[in-house]
Amino acid sequence: MSIDQIREGMEVIGADGVHVGTVDRIEGHRIKLTKADSGSGSHEGHHHFLSAGLIAGVEGDQVRLSATAENAELFEEEQDEG
């Protein structure tokens, strides 16, 4: 699996099939998720990133992770805006 197969707008799902986010773009070896998937409260207004190491594969318009959605969120990195 190559990170080059991942495109803007693809859905990112956990190994359990649960929606994790939507690809904004690839930055280095990380997937940058759209702000719309950033949640609320202290997570609102931040882009979140997932390491390419979590990617299990690409199927159609979906990026499937090797971790469940809940576990993948534990590995997310945040970027402050502003």
Automatic annotation (TrEMBL):
| InterPro entries, per database record | DUF2171
Identify the Pfam families for this entry. Answer: DUF2171
Under what name is this protein listed? Answer: DUF2171 domain-containing protein
Species assigned in the record = Sphingomonas alba
- Lineage of producing organism: Bacteria, Pseudomonadati, Pseudomonadota, Alphaproteobacteria, Sphingomonadales
